[in-house]
Amino acid sequence: MIDFNVPPYVGTELKYVEEAVAVNHKICGDGPFTHRCNAWLEQKTGTAKALLTTSCTHATEMAALLADIREGDEVIMPSYTFVSTADAFVLRGAVPVFVDIRPDTMNIDEKKIEAAVTERTRAIVPVHYAGVSCEMDVIMDIAKKYHLHVIEDAAQGVMSTYKGKQLGTIGDYGCYSFHETKNYSMGEGGALLIRDPENVERAEIIREKGTNRAKFFRGQIDKYTWVDAGSSYLPGDMNAAYLLAQLDMADAIFEDRMRSWNLYQELLTPLAKAGKIELPFIPEGCNHNAHMFYVKAKDIEERSALIRFLKEHGIQAVFHYIPLHSAPAGQRFGRFHGEDIYTTKESERLLRLPMYYGLKEEQVQYIAETIEEFYA
Ligand SMILES: *Cc1c(COP(=O)(O)O)cnc(C)c1O
């Protein structure tokens, strides 16, 4: 069986974890490995501050608190996304306002955002699907015009860029995921990227249960105390150690995934040219990170048949994201602005192929051949 996902493992993780336990004697949050991960992310992305979190979901919750999202506020986002994108704002009493996606990238259609802005709109949450950037120039212009926060759901976008800028560094806040299904992993985990230095101190306070403990550890104050509302969003240092092992090998992981992605693209292009399937589209100015390779079948029936065929041939291919506006909670908490032209239709056609660090060339060849066989 070729699994859809295998968590990344480079081989040095346990050595790093052992160091956390047996050398550092520091396994709670904000130990040496967390600091090294934060520094790595800051150096790699150029953001003012990166803070490791327990998940991307929690990073997004922190961003919602930092943006002072309140009851009745509206937050514009795509419906074709993971539940966390909406949950973080629903927890603050806000209304997710879903906007249709572009069929080519599956990202929010930047041309449809402005019409969804009302006097209650407070933020736009672009989701960089498959690590391919949204049209950030257009989104940032709208945000500036209407004084909106931009919180990037860059869960899938670590090591991707838009016009040379790392995803997650363009909006006020960027949220990364290090879940085991993502390119770089610590099991469960994430990071919050903070663009503007003036927002860093409050982010540190929110992340440390509303205390100024980070300042205390830096020796800037002689005792720490409760100064604001907050929660516990920091991961243990063993998880950070696991992640650092992978960040130290980030280029190798990136290149390995990119080889598989490019091979899929090369081998499946004839089928796409023949009009049987559609392949991912990467717009000008976007450099992706090979997070995902997908194909689009004609419709949901053809996709179901393809999933079955691949399964019979030992290949696990999956789809995801029942559009949020059609889910029970989405109907209760949110609303769709405008017409759903592409969100439902395109989500029903999309099928994700196996993609992970260590996927072999022969495996990609076999998967591509099997898809060809299905359409023959
Ligand atoms: C994976 C993912 C998340 C959630 O990440 P966690 O780290 O599991 O909380 C959020 N949004 C998108 C688009 C994702 O792919």
What do you see in this structure?
- With 376 residues, the chain is an alpha/beta fold.
- Helix content is 38%, strand content 13%.
- The protein is built from 13 helices and 13 strands.
- The strands form three sheets. Strands 1-9-8-5-4-2-3-12 form an eight-stranded mixed sheet, sandwiched between helices. Strands 7-6-10 form a three-stranded antiparallel sheet, with no helix packed on it. Strands 11-13 form a two-stranded antiparallel sheet.
- Helix 5 links the parallel strand 4 and strand 5.
- Helix 2 packs parallel to helix 8 and helix 3 packs parallel to helix 4.
- The chain is globular, with a radius of gyration of 21 Å.
- The mean pLDDT is 97.
- It binds pyridoxal-5'-phosphate (PLP).
- Pyridoxal-5'-phosphate (PLP) binds next to helix 3 and helix 4.
